[in-house]
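Q: Entry one of two.
A:
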Amino acid sequence: MNKVIFNSLKGVLSSLLLILIVFILSFGNPIETFSIPKLNLAGPDSRVVEHLRIHVPESLRDSWLQAEKASWEPWLAKQDGFLGRELYWDKENEEGFLLISWASRSQWKNIPQKEIELVQDRFENFARDETGQKKGNPFPLRYEGELSPQ
């Protein structure tokens, strides 16, 4: 008889547990939860990526890379806050993409414009030597912007 009562009690408890699970799933979790809004990590002095697009014809791609290596690469390596640089080339649009990472926006923007212009002149001189172009910039800028982490 005790076995019959035990099995009945076991059945009732299983049924109650099943009802409780269905109730919780139907009406939400009874435990109070909180949602934290997405944090914006892009404060005024957070990490930033400088994004440039320049015109690079397929026939001059190697010349562009040589001019970058001879001018911007060594200069950037010496800059406070410089984290790294990635160069990409889009064959379809004949564009070079430059992603230059900086530890902070202020470190990037505190570089004197005159200094940047000197390095740009050096780049253009190397580029003209590499391409045989007599004047101007063989790889004109198409876009300049910045990307912030989110």
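Q: Entry two of two.
A:
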Amino acid sequence: MNENQKTEPTRILIIDDEAPFTRMVKLNMQNAGNYVVETLNESPQARIVAKQFKPDIILLDVVMPEADGGDVATMLRESAATKEIPIIFVSAMVSRNEAHKGLYQSGGEYFLAKPVSSDALIDAINQVLL
């Protein structure tokens, strides 16, 4: 790894309709390490924001009023500019037992249960990006 790669921050896009949740995660992630975090609370704008921000990974809520996480993921994967960006679904719909208290895969998708700690998010992001 060259010196530039070591200092380049991980770019994270958080898409969740709950503004207090996205603010808290953004603050915690920025305080925890080398992260640049963008948040979005209106899921229909996900493709535009993802194209502009160019995240390394997306944390995506499942249940949202305008377009749910499945719809947003499909929309992102249909665009050449965003189709390769890894997505971790973060949802209260996933039980801790299902999530095995951490990141788990189902149907080729990654999931984390809410509420989720900053440490669990960082571990999940590292696992997916490696």
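A: Comment on entry two: The beta strands are 10-15, 35-40, 57-60, 87-91, 104-106, 109-113. The radius of gyration is 14 Å.
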